[in-house]
Amino acid sequence: MHAWPASEVPALPGKGRDLRIHDTATGGRITVDPGPVARIYVCGITPYDATHMGHAATYNAFDLVQRVWLDTKRQVHYVQNVTDVDDPLLERAVRDGQDWTELAERETALFREDMTALRMLPPKHYIGAVEAIPGIVPLVERLRDAGAAYELDGDVYFSVETDPHFGEVSNLDAEAMRLLSAERGGDPERPGKKNPLDPMLWMAAREGEPSWDGASLGAGRPGWHIECVAIALDHLGMGFDVQGGGSDLAFPHHEMGASHAQVLTGEHPFAQAYVHAGMVALDGEKMSKSRGNLVFVSALRRDGVDPAAIRLALLSHHYRSDWEWTDQVLADAVERLARWRSAVSRPDGLSADALVDEVREALADDLDAPAALAAVDRWAERQNAEGGTDEGAPGLVSRTVDALLGVAL
To answer: CATH number of the domain at 304-405, out of 3.30.360.10, 1.10.10.60, 1.20.120.640, 3.40.50.1100?
Structure first.
């Protein structure tokens, strides 16, 4: 599966700061210290609907991570998946009378268009669950043969009790895990499981649903968590720098994935940092496909909204915060974009050397994009009011905003 085209990232003078970021597993801020190549895995979409603002906010957060690392003169090895076969996708296809593969392909293509418009840097490897199945099957067989998985009516489950580190990603108690498991795709009430929290690794073929040859597992399809584990281990290996996604993925998805990988390899941890973006609401409720309370990136683009303004709307909220999308949020972003473009349109201006440092420091400090925006606001306000004589300043500000915030002025 191919990703989307990359926009050019301007080079800035000097060198950026190392990233300090909140790690869900430790509950505090840590300094991520990659080698020459920083490794990041971000969980991708299940393509049964278009990209909404909740998706965009999450991918914007991890785009900032990449940009901070690139500014430190590192290379970035970014991997993202597409869950192109799963219950919600199949259910939507049946509801709408569509072929599930055509639905997945169409929505994935639209997602690529949205990411391109928003200037999100693409992953080096963009892998669909279906194409990953040949690598998933041997991992499930290894877990079963090691006694870390068991069969139940043809389905294969992972035993969470085989990982001594289970629970260390989300730090939730058993009851909270059980409730979230039921809410987020698990089946804790299924009779016969060794532990209600045990997640499915391989689902035996169901009538009327797609299935693949699972070798000794029989025909079926993979569970959700093992999909990402297989892709991450194949392309990044154990101990990569950042595992990312929305805060609703901390449990069960990232917790279960970490346990799968740690039992498979005998190593710990799966990722050095688990980083989670907040949720975006609309009309007082979390924006979600199941509720249907969605604002789509593609719809805004069709209405003529500048993608740079959409991106500024996302950047105006700290990535870890839960916030609400409103017409005013977008209006403020449109107005900010106009102010910034006016400020950099002059042939000369106020020195921007200090501004570059401010933006770098803000982003290195747990991706504090609102602080970075405020720094540019202050420069733009003075530039529009007073002007200056530095001929290189407007261009430097434009390059800084593009390189570090992904906004083209």
So the answer is: 1.20.120.640
